[in-house]
Design goal:
- This protein has about 300 residues and is an alpha+beta fold.
- The protein has eleven helices and twelve strands.
- The strands form three sheets. A seven-stranded mixed beta sheet has the order 3-7-8-12-11-10-9. Strands 4-6-5 form a three-stranded antiparallel beta sheet.
- A hairpin with an 8-residue loop joins strand 10 and strand 11.
- Helix 2 packs across helix 10.
- The protein is globular, with a radius of gyration of 21 Å.
- The relative contact order is 0.16.
- The structure holds adenosine-5'-triphosphate, zinc ion and magnesium ion.
Length: about 300
Amino acid sequence: MDARTFDSKSLLDSLFENGILFESGIDGLYGRSGAFEEVIEQFERLVTRLGAPDKATRIHFPPGMSRATLEKSGYMKSFPQLAGCVHSFMGGEREHVQLLGMMADGGDWTALQKATDVALTPAACYPLYPTVAARGPVPAQGLLFELSSYCFRHEPSKDPARMQLFRMREFVQIGTAEQVRSFRESWLKRGKAMIESLDLPCEVDLANDPFFGRGGKMMANNQLDQGLKFELLIPVTSIEKPTACLSFNYHQDHFGQTWGLKFADGEFCHSACVGFGLERVALALFRHHGPDAAAWPTAVRDVLWSA
Ligand code: ATP
Ligand code: ZN
Ligand code: MG
Protein backbone atom coordinates (compact mmCIF):
# COMPACT_ATOMS: atom_id res chain seq x y z
CA MET A 1 0.00 0.00 0.00
CA ASP A 2 2.22 2.65 -1.41
CA ALA A 3 1.08 6.21 -0.75
CA ARG A 4 1.60 6.95 -4.46
CA THR A 5 -0.68 4.20 -5.75
CA PHE A 6 -4.07 5.75 -5.91
CA ASP A 7 -5.96 3.85 -8.57
CA SER A 8 -8.47 1.03 -8.21
CA LYS A 9 -6.58 -1.79 -9.88
CA SER A 10 -3.28 -1.29 -8.03
CA LEU A 11 -5.04 -0.92 -4.68
CA LEU A 12 -6.94 -4.15 -5.35
CA ASP A 13 -3.71 -5.94 -6.33
CA SER A 14 -1.93 -4.73 -3.20
CA LEU A 15 -4.86 -5.90 -1.04
CA PHE A 16 -4.53 -9.37 -2.62
CA GLU A 17 -0.73 -9.34 -2.25
CA ASN A 18 -0.97 -8.37 1.40
CA GLY A 19 -3.51 -11.11 2.10
CA ILE A 20 -6.19 -8.62 3.18
CA LEU A 21 -8.66 -9.63 0.48
CA PHE A 22 -8.83 -12.92 -1.44
CA GLU A 23 -9.86 -13.36 -5.09
CA SER A 24 -12.96 -15.32 -6.02
CA GLY A 25 -12.77 -14.94 -9.80
CA ILE A 26 -15.63 -12.42 -9.76
CA ASP A 27 -15.06 -8.67 -9.54
CA GLY A 28 -16.62 -7.29 -6.37
CA LEU A 29 -16.77 -10.68 -4.60
CA TYR A 30 -13.89 -11.23 -2.18
CA GLY A 31 -12.79 -13.26 0.77
CA ARG A 32 -11.79 -11.17 3.79
CA SER A 33 -8.81 -11.83 6.07
CA GLY A 34 -9.18 -12.25 9.82
CA ALA A 35 -7.44 -8.89 10.30
CA PHE A 36 -9.91 -7.18 7.94
CA GLU A 37 -12.85 -8.72 9.82
CA GLU A 38 -11.41 -7.66 13.17
CA VAL A 39 -11.23 -4.05 11.96
CA ILE A 40 -14.87 -4.25 10.88
CA GLU A 41 -15.89 -5.78 14.22
CA GLN A 42 -14.14 -3.01 16.16
CA PHE A 43 -15.59 -0.31 13.91
CA GLU A 44 -19.10 -1.72 14.41
CA ARG A 45 -18.54 -1.61 18.18
CA LEU A 46 -17.51 2.02 17.87
CA VAL A 47 -20.67 2.85 15.90
CA THR A 48 -22.87 1.02 18.38
CA ARG A 49 -21.20 2.76 21.31
CA LEU A 50 -21.73 6.18 19.71
CA GLY A 51 -25.39 5.44 19.12
CA ALA A 52 -25.95 3.78 22.52
CA PRO A 53 -27.43 6.87 24.28
CA ASP A 54 -30.27 6.91 21.71
CA LYS A 55 -31.37 3.38 22.70
CA ALA A 56 -32.11 2.06 19.22
CA THR A 57 -33.76 -1.33 18.72
CA ARG A 58 -31.24 -3.64 17.05
CA ILE A 59 -32.34 -5.92 14.22
CA HIS A 60 -30.10 -8.09 12.07
CA PHE A 61 -31.76 -9.02 8.80
CA PRO A 62 -30.37 -11.75 6.53
CA PRO A 63 -28.95 -10.77 3.12
CA GLY A 64 -32.16 -11.90 1.43
CA MET A 65 -35.54 -10.16 1.74
CA SER A 66 -39.09 -10.61 0.50
CA ARG A 67 -39.19 -10.00 -3.26
CA ALA A 68 -42.71 -8.57 -2.90
CA THR A 69 -41.35 -6.04 -0.40
CA LEU A 70 -38.60 -4.99 -2.80
CA GLU A 71 -41.16 -4.62 -5.61
CA LYS A 72 -43.51 -2.51 -3.50
CA SER A 73 -40.67 -0.30 -2.25
CA GLY A 74 -40.18 1.02 -5.80
CA TYR A 75 -36.62 -0.28 -6.07
CA MET A 76 -37.17 -1.67 -9.59
CA LYS A 77 -38.33 1.75 -10.78
CA SER A 78 -35.23 3.52 -9.54
CA PHE A 79 -32.41 0.94 -9.59
CA PRO A 80 -33.31 -2.02 -11.82
CA GLN A 81 -29.65 -2.26 -12.85
CA LEU A 82 -28.50 -3.01 -9.29
CA ALA A 83 -31.16 -5.47 -8.12
CA GLY A 84 -30.62 -9.19 -7.71
CA CYS A 85 -33.31 -11.83 -7.39
CA VAL A 86 -32.76 -15.42 -6.21
CA HIS A 87 -33.76 -18.07 -8.75
CA SER A 88 -34.05 -21.82 -8.16
CA PHE A 89 -34.76 -24.96 -10.10
CA MET A 90 -38.34 -26.04 -9.47
CA GLY A 91 -38.84 -28.66 -12.18
CA GLY A 92 -39.26 -32.43 -12.05
CA GLU A 93 -37.01 -35.25 -13.20
CA ARG A 94 -37.56 -34.60 -16.89
CA GLU A 95 -36.56 -30.98 -16.57
CA HIS A 96 -33.57 -32.06 -14.47
CA VAL A 97 -32.28 -34.25 -17.30
CA GLN A 98 -32.83 -31.33 -19.65
CA LEU A 99 -30.92 -29.02 -17.29
CA LEU A 100 -27.91 -31.34 -17.06
CA GLY A 101 -27.95 -31.70 -20.85
CA MET A 102 -27.95 -27.92 -21.28
CA MET A 103 -25.07 -27.62 -18.83
CA ALA A 104 -23.05 -30.28 -20.64
CA ASP A 105 -23.64 -28.50 -23.96
CA GLY A 106 -22.64 -25.16 -22.49
CA GLY A 107 -26.19 -23.88 -22.93
CA ASP A 108 -28.00 -21.40 -20.68
CA TRP A 109 -29.30 -23.89 -18.08
CA THR A 110 -30.44 -20.98 -15.86
CA ALA A 111 -33.41 -20.63 -18.24
CA LEU A 112 -34.85 -23.62 -16.34
CA GLN A 113 -34.77 -21.75 -13.05
CA LYS A 114 -37.64 -19.69 -11.72
CA ALA A 115 -37.70 -16.62 -9.52
CA THR A 116 -38.18 -17.47 -5.83
CA ASP A 117 -39.91 -15.20 -3.31
CA VAL A 118 -36.48 -14.00 -2.18
CA ALA A 119 -34.56 -11.01 -3.49
CA LEU A 120 -31.11 -9.97 -2.34
CA THR A 121 -31.22 -7.04 0.09
CA PRO A 122 -29.90 -3.89 -1.65
CA ALA A 123 -29.72 -1.70 1.48
CA ALA A 124 -30.04 -2.70 5.13
CA CYS A 125 -33.18 -0.63 5.75
CA TYR A 126 -35.44 -1.98 2.97
CA PRO A 127 -36.82 -4.94 4.95
CA LEU A 128 -37.50 -2.71 7.98
CA TYR A 129 -40.42 -0.53 6.89
CA PRO A 130 -43.11 -3.19 6.34
CA THR A 131 -41.93 -4.94 9.52
CA VAL A 132 -42.55 -1.76 11.51
CA ALA A 133 -45.82 -0.95 9.74
CA ALA A 134 -47.19 -4.39 10.64
CA ARG A 135 -46.74 -3.58 14.34
CA GLY A 136 -49.30 -0.78 14.34
CA PRO A 137 -49.18 3.01 14.81
CA VAL A 138 -45.83 4.67 15.46
CA PRO A 139 -45.63 6.32 18.92
CA ALA A 140 -45.46 10.15 19.05
CA GLN A 141 -41.79 10.10 20.11
CA GLY A 142 -40.90 8.10 16.95
CA LEU A 143 -38.93 4.87 16.57
CA LEU A 144 -35.22 4.29 16.19
CA PHE A 145 -33.55 1.16 14.80
CA GLU A 146 -30.00 -0.05 14.41
CA LEU A 147 -29.63 -2.48 11.54
CA SER A 148 -26.96 -4.58 9.98
CA SER A 149 -27.04 -6.63 6.81
CA TYR A 150 -24.99 -7.94 3.96
CA CYS A 151 -26.23 -6.15 0.84
CA PHE A 152 -26.07 -7.02 -2.85
CA ARG A 153 -25.73 -4.62 -5.76
CA HIS A 154 -24.94 -5.71 -9.27
CA GLU A 155 -22.12 -3.27 -9.96
CA PRO A 156 -19.05 -5.43 -10.75
CA SER A 157 -15.90 -3.33 -10.65
CA LYS A 158 -12.13 -3.50 -10.20
CA ASP A 159 -12.55 -0.82 -7.55
CA PRO A 160 -12.19 -2.73 -4.26
CA ALA A 161 -14.53 -0.15 -2.67
CA ARG A 162 -17.30 -1.11 -5.11
CA MET A 163 -18.19 -4.65 -4.12
CA GLN A 164 -21.20 -6.71 -5.17
CA LEU A 165 -21.70 -8.10 -1.66
CA PHE A 166 -20.83 -5.85 1.25
CA ARG A 167 -22.10 -4.96 4.72
CA MET A 168 -24.02 -1.94 5.79
CA ARG A 169 -24.75 -0.84 9.30
CA GLU A 170 -27.60 1.64 9.55
CA PHE A 171 -29.50 3.73 12.03
CA VAL A 172 -33.05 4.44 10.90
CA GLN A 173 -35.29 7.05 12.48
CA ILE A 174 -39.02 6.93 11.83
CA GLY A 175 -41.00 9.93 13.10
CA THR A 176 -42.04 13.49 12.29
CA ALA A 177 -40.17 15.54 9.68
CA GLU A 178 -38.55 17.44 12.52
CA GLN A 179 -37.50 14.32 14.46
CA VAL A 180 -35.87 12.68 11.44
CA ARG A 181 -34.15 15.90 10.34
CA SER A 182 -32.59 16.42 13.74
CA PHE A 183 -31.57 12.73 13.79
CA ARG A 184 -29.77 13.24 10.48
CA GLU A 185 -28.12 16.46 11.65
CA SER A 186 -26.81 14.81 14.78
CA TRP A 187 -25.35 11.86 12.82
CA LEU A 188 -23.74 14.18 10.27
CA LYS A 189 -21.79 15.66 13.20
CA ARG A 190 -21.15 12.39 15.03
CA GLY A 191 -20.16 10.53 11.84
CA LYS A 192 -17.64 13.18 10.79
CA ALA A 193 -16.12 13.37 14.29
CA MET A 194 -15.86 9.57 14.42
CA ILE A 195 -14.05 9.32 11.05
CA GLU A 196 -11.74 12.18 12.06
CA SER A 197 -10.94 10.38 15.31
CA LEU A 198 -9.63 7.54 13.11
CA ASP A 199 -7.27 10.03 11.45
CA LEU A 200 -8.91 9.68 8.03
CA PRO A 201 -9.27 12.69 5.71
CA CYS A 202 -12.91 13.29 4.88
CA GLU A 203 -15.45 15.75 3.61
CA VAL A 204 -19.23 15.84 3.64
CA ASP A 205 -21.04 16.69 0.43
CA LEU A 206 -24.50 16.72 -1.12
CA ALA A 207 -25.10 13.62 -3.23
CA ASN A 208 -27.60 11.86 -5.45
CA ASP A 209 -28.42 8.22 -6.13
CA PRO A 210 -27.80 6.66 -9.57
CA PHE A 211 -31.50 6.61 -10.60
CA PHE A 212 -32.02 4.64 -13.81
CA GLY A 213 -32.73 6.08 -17.25
CA ARG A 214 -33.84 9.47 -18.52
CA GLY A 215 -36.49 9.96 -15.85
CA GLY A 216 -33.79 9.15 -13.32
CA LYS A 217 -31.93 12.36 -14.12
CA MET A 218 -34.91 14.35 -12.91
CA MET A 219 -35.14 12.32 -9.70
CA ALA A 220 -31.43 12.82 -9.09
CA ASN A 221 -31.75 16.59 -9.61
CA ASN A 222 -34.73 16.72 -7.31
CA GLN A 223 -32.77 14.81 -4.65
CA LEU A 224 -29.91 17.31 -4.95
CA ASP A 225 -32.19 20.39 -4.98
CA GLN A 226 -33.98 19.26 -1.86
CA GLY A 227 -30.78 18.22 -0.06
CA LEU A 228 -32.13 14.74 0.61
CA LYS A 229 -28.80 12.88 0.52
CA PHE A 230 -25.41 13.67 2.00
CA GLU A 231 -22.31 11.52 1.87
CA LEU A 232 -19.15 11.46 3.92
CA LEU A 233 -16.36 10.93 1.40
CA ILE A 234 -12.87 9.52 2.04
CA PRO A 235 -10.18 9.19 -0.62
CA VAL A 236 -9.69 5.44 -1.10
CA THR A 237 -8.81 4.80 -4.74
CA SER A 238 -8.80 8.39 -5.96
CA ILE A 239 -8.17 11.81 -4.46
CA GLU A 240 -10.28 13.60 -7.08
CA LYS A 241 -13.18 11.17 -6.68
CA PRO A 242 -13.28 10.17 -3.03
CA THR A 243 -15.43 7.23 -1.93
CA ALA A 244 -18.77 7.53 -0.13
CA CYS A 245 -18.21 5.69 3.16
CA LEU A 246 -21.17 7.02 5.15
CA SER A 247 -24.55 8.13 3.72
CA PHE A 248 -27.22 10.28 5.31
CA ASN A 249 -30.58 9.94 3.59
CA TYR A 250 -33.86 11.77 4.21
CA HIS A 251 -36.75 9.88 2.56
CA GLN A 252 -39.43 12.45 3.45
CA ASP A 253 -42.66 10.43 3.80
CA HIS A 254 -41.89 8.12 0.84
CA PHE A 255 -41.69 4.94 2.96
CA GLY A 256 -44.44 6.23 5.26
CA GLN A 257 -46.82 6.47 2.31
CA THR A 258 -45.62 3.26 0.64
CA TRP A 259 -45.99 1.11 3.75
CA GLY A 260 -48.73 2.99 5.61
CA LEU A 261 -46.39 3.97 8.43
CA LYS A 262 -48.57 6.31 10.51
CA PHE A 263 -48.93 7.94 13.88
CA ALA A 264 -52.06 7.18 15.90
CA ASP A 265 -53.71 10.35 14.45
CA GLY A 266 -53.31 9.00 10.89
CA GLU A 267 -50.47 11.33 9.90
CA PHE A 268 -47.82 9.63 7.69
CA CYS A 269 -44.36 9.19 9.20
CA HIS A 270 -41.17 10.54 7.70
CA SER A 271 -37.94 8.56 7.79
CA ALA A 272 -34.19 9.01 7.49
CA CYS A 273 -31.28 6.63 7.64
CA VAL A 274 -27.57 6.87 8.16
CA GLY A 275 -25.61 4.06 6.54
CA PHE A 276 -22.04 3.00 7.34
CA GLY A 277 -20.33 1.09 4.52
CA LEU A 278 -18.28 -1.30 6.65
CA GLU A 279 -15.93 -2.64 3.96
CA ARG A 280 -15.36 0.90 2.66
CA VAL A 281 -14.37 2.20 6.11
CA ALA A 282 -12.05 -0.79 6.63
CA LEU A 283 -10.48 -0.25 3.18
CA ALA A 284 -9.98 3.45 3.96
CA LEU A 285 -8.20 2.51 7.20
CA PHE A 286 -5.90 0.00 5.46
CA ARG A 287 -5.32 2.45 2.61
CA HIS A 288 -4.28 5.33 4.88
CA HIS A 289 -2.63 3.55 7.81
CA GLY A 290 -0.98 0.61 6.06
CA PRO A 291 -1.52 -3.13 5.50
CA ASP A 292 -0.61 -4.17 9.05
CA ALA A 293 -3.30 -3.08 11.51
CA ALA A 294 -0.95 -3.83 14.44
CA ALA A 295 1.34 -1.06 13.12
CA TRP A 296 -1.38 1.59 12.80
CA PRO A 297 -0.86 4.86 14.74
CA THR A 298 -1.47 4.36 18.45
CA ALA A 299 -4.16 7.05 18.53
CA VAL A 300 -6.14 5.21 15.83
CA ARG A 301 -5.69 1.82 17.51
CA ASP A 302 -6.76 3.31 20.84
CA VAL A 303 -10.02 4.60 19.36
CA LEU A 304 -10.81 1.34 17.56
CA TRP A 305 -9.66 -1.15 20.15
CA SER A 306 -11.08 0.64 23.15
CA ALA A 307 -14.57 0.27 21.71
P1 ATP B 1 -21.89 5.15 -4.43
O1 ATP B 1 -22.30 6.54 -4.79
O2 ATP B 1 -20.42 5.01 -4.18
O3 ATP B 1 -22.42 4.14 -5.39
P2 ATP B 1 -24.17 4.85 -2.82
O4 ATP B 1 -24.68 6.25 -2.90
O5 ATP B 1 -24.76 3.90 -3.78
O6 ATP B 1 -22.56 4.86 -3.01
P3 ATP B 1 -25.74 4.18 -0.56
O7 ATP B 1 -26.78 3.67 -1.47
O8 ATP B 1 -26.01 5.44 0.16
O9 ATP B 1 -24.35 4.32 -1.36
O10 ATP B 1 -25.32 3.02 0.46
C1 ATP B 1 -24.97 3.24 1.83
C2 ATP B 1 -23.50 2.94 2.08
O11 ATP B 1 -23.16 1.62 1.62
C3 ATP B 1 -22.55 3.87 1.32
O12 ATP B 1 -22.29 5.02 2.06
C4 ATP B 1 -21.32 3.02 1.15
O13 ATP B 1 -20.47 3.17 2.26
C5 ATP B 1 -21.84 1.60 1.11
N1 ATP B 1 -21.84 1.07 -0.27
C6 ATP B 1 -22.70 1.38 -1.27
N2 ATP B 1 -22.42 0.69 -2.39
C7 ATP B 1 -21.34 -0.10 -2.08
C8 ATP B 1 -20.57 -1.05 -2.82
N3 ATP B 1 -20.85 -1.35 -4.07
N4 ATP B 1 -19.54 -1.66 -2.17
C9 ATP B 1 -19.25 -1.38 -0.88
N5 ATP B 1 -19.93 -0.49 -0.14
C10 ATP B 1 -20.97 0.15 -0.73
ZN1 ZN C 1 -31.34 3.12 4.51
MG1 MG D 1 -24.12 3.20 -5.60
